[in-house]
Amino acid sequence: MPERTVKDRLIEAAFTLFEERGYERTTVDDITERAGVSRATFFRTFRSKEDVIFPDHDAVLTAIRSRLAGSTQQTALVAVCEAARLVLLHYIGEGELALSRYRLTRTFPALRDREIASTLQYQRVFREFIHDWMGGEEDTALRAELMAAAVVTAHNYVLRRWLRGQTDAPEAEFDAAMASTVDLFAEPGSTTGPGSIVVFRTSQDLDAVLPALRGILGDPA
Amino acid sequence: MPERTVKDRLIEAAFTLFEERGYERTTVDDITERAGVSRATFFRTFRSKEDVIFPDHDAVLTAIRSRLAGSTQQTALVAVCEAARLVLLHYIGEGELALSRYRLTRTFPALRDREIASTLQYQRVFREFIHDWMGGEEDTALRAELMAAAVVTAHNYVLRRWLRGQTDAPEAEFDAAMASTVDLFAEPGSTTGPGSIVVFRTSQDLDAVLPALRGILGDPA
DNA sequence: CGGTTGTCTGATACTCAGTATCGTATAGGT
DNA sequence: ACCTATACGATACTGAGTATCAGACAACCG
């Protein structure tokens, strides 16, 4: 295990100081001093003081994009849900860092705004992907936007519950939330028109769920 | 005709200069000089340089709250839609100011983030109101959040179309968008238990898609 | 009318985030 | 051993935002 990178040292120093003195009362000089690097290095590593709070944002955004890119027409909705799940899992993987960030964003409105804005970057990626998936026509633009907003909202809902310590099974809750969310956009009655079937993570045997499937589809012929 | 207030002069000076030189290349000193007031007065009138871009935000937020407050259990959903309409009408009433703001938010990411954050303040008010309307129980929290997100998303969709000059009848489009949005929540979503299956618009015969279905599921047994 | 009080304003000095640009050390390749 | 990339430190600068002082001006009150 090589020595920790400058970036990691800065992140740890920043979060430690933010917890001790609060975000506003911690200067960049304080952070760099504790991390043992120069001030210039901080701004080479992070674009701004706020950025150190969300160090992996760009990486997560890239992960989302590549997850979506590797999907077919048939698996598009699954891809969106799993991309959202990727974000959730990243936060959970951060552990204490994510919890500390949550405390900070609750305390300083500017940071909360920043987090909201980054969340909506995910939403934008989802929206564009879903819209393309729908064919990119103008008459589906609103629907695509609503779907993207719903997916992100459901994700945020579960994430917030986990951050607050209100759940020990965030993944299961995520699946449930995502299922009921995607359900909003289902059209159970119509078996006409172009469309596709999306299967959303079942552990049950296929035959066990077929009756329900036929029921929803309208049991053709 | 009374003379325009300091606040109005600052707003006009700011938008004029932002259009001329761009947001970043305009300093607060430039604005105050053009408005004929001191720098201190600017920061007494607006909390920050960004705030001058959204001068009526607090007023709109207050208007939303009072519109929601004056609603009964029966008219709750109508109240939410009309509160959202209030926001739309405010933007339209601003006219050129709203268009100028849109141009600025497109060119400067920090301003766009700021606008997004303020939009989500509306969403939060809606969410809390809807959740209370639903009874405030935990099992409706996600649904309330999804509804609030959907209403705001639909509003933003129509607003953006108007800002881009893509519609001459924003109110009619708003009504249509809001109708289809509320429609999403008309029927409670039907899931088939844990690890649920979501069916999404198919025109194909069930047997035709079964191979793909089994493939996604991992073809048990 | 004179005095008081509260509010609005200008002026000044300060902190700190963020940018720009310099010089330097060091790892890696030839 | 020489060259070149990149990474880092140091310094100076711009500009946002804060704090504080002092003066102008109205309203109110005795």
Q: How much is the radius of gyration of chain A in Å?
A: 21 Å
Instruction: Enter the CATH topology name of the largest domain in chain A.
Output: Tetracycline Repressor, domain 2
What overall geometry of chain A do the principal axes of the alpha carbons give?
Answer: elongated
Which residues of chain A sit in consecutive blocks of at least 5 with pLDDT less than 50? 190-201, 203-207, 215-221
What is the count of helical runs of chain A? 10
Q: Please state roughly what percent of the residues of chain A sit in beta strands, choosing from under 5%, 5-15%, 15-25%, 25-35%, 35-45% or over 45%.
A: under 5%
The helix fraction of chain A, in percent, is: 55-70%
Structural write-up:
The structure is a homodimer of 221-residue chains. Chain A is mostly helical and 221 residues long. The first copy, chain A, has two domains: 6-52, Homeodomain-like (Arc Repressor Mutant, subunit A, Orthogonal Bundle), CATH 1.10.10.60; 54-216, Tetracycline Repressor, domain 2. The first copy, chain A, has helices spanning 6-21, 28-35, 39-45, 57-69, 76-94, 96-107, 109-134, 141-163, 170-183, 206-217. The N and C termini of chain A lie far apart (64 Å). Chains A and B meet through helix 7, helix 8, helix 9 and helix 10 of A and helix 7, helix 8, helix 9 and helix 10 of B. Chain A binds a DNA duplex (30 and 30 nucleotides) through residues 6, 27-29, 37-41, 43-44, 47-49. Chains A, B: Keywords: DNA-binding. Chains A, B: InterPro entries: Homeodomain-like_sf (IPR009057), HTH-type_TetR-like_transc_reg (IPR050109), HTH_TetR (IPR001647). Chains A, B: This is TetR/AcrR family transcriptional regulator. Chains A, B: Residues 4-64 form the HTH tetR-type domain.
